[in-house]
Each structure stands twice: as structure tokens, then as C-alpha cells.
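The instructor's notes for this session suggest beginning with a concrete chain rather than abstract definitions. Hand out the sequence below and ask the class to guess, before any prediction is shown, which regions might be ordered.
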Amino acid sequence: MTTTTHKGLTSSNTAADTASTDAAPVVRAVLYSRISKDTEGLGLGVERQREELHRLAAARGWHVVADLADNDISASSGKRRPAYEQAMALVDRREVDVLAVWAVDRLVRRLRDLEDVIDRTEASGSAAGVRIVTCQGDLDLSSPAGRMQARILASVARNESEQKGLRQRLQQRQAAQSGRPPARRAFGYLPGGRDLNEPEAGAIRECAKRLLAGASLTSLADYLNGEGLTTSLGRPWERTAVRAMLLNARLAGIRTLRGEVVGKGTWPPVLPEEDWHAVRALLLTPGRTTSGGTTARKWVGGTLYRCGRCRAPMRTGTRAGASGNADPTAARIYLCDATGSKHLTRRADEVDAYVLAVVEARLAEPDVAALLPAESPDVAGLRREAADLRERRDGLGEAFADGLLTAAQVKTASDRLSARLAEVEERLAQASQAGGLSYVLAAECPPVAFRSAALGIQRAVIDTLMTVVLLPGRSGSRGFDPETVRLDWKG
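After discussion, reveal the predicted structure:
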């Protein structure tokens, strides 16, 4: 006796089922199930199809060779269906006599896929054909009438798929216009999207503060991973994922649909809208480095310190070995070769240690709060202008709906307002230089916060407080000489 068991259902072939192998040969069947959308991730739709198919197999006395299922995979999206491919491989090798599905649309939803199934199941040479059987009836693909029926069913399935897609798009548009959150959970929110996940929301706020203070995306990814947090998909954080997360308009309570702003959301924002726009402007600043960073940015003063001979930015490098090539084991140096030769070099670790120590000492002074400049009238005016531009742009849709503007007029006005808004946001991003100092001074102990801050924040603080100028060493001097580092304090 051959038996295949599934969830308490058993299909079997015994001697009684087949009185003689000549009169009733064993029929080998592969069962295939599929569901396009498994919103709960429980596979219940596939499970119900499997139960029906096993009942069918038991009633027909088939031997179930394989029970295969594709869960949460559409048949019309073009995505790979691993279980479908396994089933068709069994068909190609003629290891089955029957391919059983709950309905035709579980197998194919496109006519070109049906034609492929017809070609692969029909008899050829000495190879017998493979029958297609559904829980609603058999399909005779060996006859013209049967193939026509299958094509009609596939056409109906295709039409249902297209109608379903249209309904889903309309539902998504309606949901967006009513301010409901998207179905997919966003980092910072609980499932359903209407309530904050406070540990994640707090981490987002910290990331926004650090970014505006000068931290890199890589350092933010390290921070999130260090807090034991993962993305909404359960993956470790990488800089690209951090960037995408911070650019998500849902953090500001803004509802979008396919990248288009639809209106205000009905959920609480993680960030004030003004703060999110500042983050967005900084991340989208033209020319902002999107790679992992350059070698110069791995040291505090790369491109930040100035040459005492020509005032050009100092870059980082290593001392040349005896052969004239860079020695990878040598100490890192700051060098200036603006004139075509290394006319000034200094050991990076010694200079950085001195500069960091001076800044820490200054941050420990009782009047440290006076270091933070008040927001300039220009910045305040830019923020007001940005808010006004967004409001005017958002109001164009209502003017179009009321018949006050044509579609062409709306596009022209929207393009003009968006272009001006991009300029204002870029200027605001450039004006956030004091962000690093603000972040450090807001800490309980500014010197400790500065020492433990990400490299980008340390650079921003130094750049806000002073200009570091490296001078040539004095002849005959040995070791580090503080007199060769001039600190020009700003303000």
C-alpha cells in the first residue's frame, strides 16, 4: 500500500483500489496550490486548497507524488513561482499523470502561460500526456474544444486579475486621501500604523538629531544596530536603509501615494514636520556624498584643517617609505600638496589629540552656553518661506478641484514652487552648521558628549568654534609642539 498523509487527510492505493495493474494502473498526481496575497502570513488560503485537493485525490484513488504550494505569490506578476516550476518539472519528466489544482486561475492567469502548459502536458512521441484536473472538473487539453475551454477560463482569470488590480488601486487612492496609513508597517510604528513604537520612535528622533549635527549615515546604522533594533523587515541596519527610513514622509505624518504627497495622515508623527523637512533637505542636498565616505573623512581634520603656508585644505595620507611608496604601516599624516609638492606635513594623531583636548576643555567652561549662536534672521525667514511654499503647493490641488486652475496651470505653478522650495531647503541644509554644537551642548556633560560623538559631529563642532591652521615645525624640534597648531576662534 502506498500512502500520502497531509493534515489528517490520507490518499491511498491498495490492492482493493487496483484490482489488477493491467485494468487500473496507479495514477500519479502532483497537487499544486497557490494564493496571491497572504495578508496575515498564515498560509490559510493555501491550506484550504490543499485540503480540497487531497479529498479529490482520495476520491479518485490517486497516488500523490508531490504536494506543492506557492504562498503569497501572484501568477500574473511575472515573479518566480518555485513550487510551480517544481510541478512543471515533474510534468516535463512524465513522473506524474495528473496535475491537480483547485481552479485554473491557481495555475495560470496569463494566456501565454496557458499555452506553455498546453505544450508541456500534451502527448508527444512515446510520452503520454498529462491531464489537468481541477476541483471544479477535468480539462481536456488534448482536444480543440478542451483547449478552447481552458483559454476561455484563462481569459476570465486574466480579466478578474486586472479588475482586482484596478479595485486595489482605487482603494489605495481612497485610503490615502482619507489619511489612513499604508498597510506595510513603517519603522517607528506598531502594526496598523496608527500608534508609535516608542523605542523605535525615540531612536528615529536621535538619528535625526545626530544627522543634523553632522553624523554620517554609517554611524547612524551602527547606533541603531548597537541599540538592538532591526528594520521593519527584521534585517540589520545599513546606511542605505537608514537613508530610506529618514526620507519616509510618514515620520512627519504626511500621507503619500507612489511618491506623491496626498495630504495629512491620521497617525501621530515621529518628527515635527519642520524637523523632517530639514532632515530631507540635508539628505537630498546636491553633491552630498552617498558612498561610504572618503579616506579623508576617517580623520578629524581631513579637508577641515588649513595649511599654514597657503591656507589650502589639508588632506590625509601616509608617509612615504624608503622606496618612495606609501608605507601602509606608517602613521597617518596631514599633508598639503596644493603647490605640487608636499610642502607641509604633520602627524595626524598628535594634531587631533591636541585639538580634541582643547575643544573638550572649552566645552567644560561655565559659559559654554554662550558659544551657541542664536538662529539668524535669515534662517528663521527661510523656514517661514519653506512652510509658505509647501502650503501654496498643497493648495493647488484644491484650486484645480474647484475649477479655478487648469491642469496645465497647476503643473506650471507646482514646478515653479517646487523649484523655489528646493533652493530654500538647500540653503537651510547649508545653514545647519551649528547643529553639531547644539547636539553636544544639549547633553548633560558636553565634554563627554563631544568625545563620544560620531566623527561628523566632532568635525561640525570644531568647524563651528574655530579654524585650525597647521604651521611648519621649528628646526631641530623633536616631538609634538603645540605652537605649530594655531587655533583661530570664531566669534
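Then share the key points. Residues 144-177 form the longest helix (34 residues). The chain has four domains: 2-160, 198-283, 295-374+435-489, 377-430.
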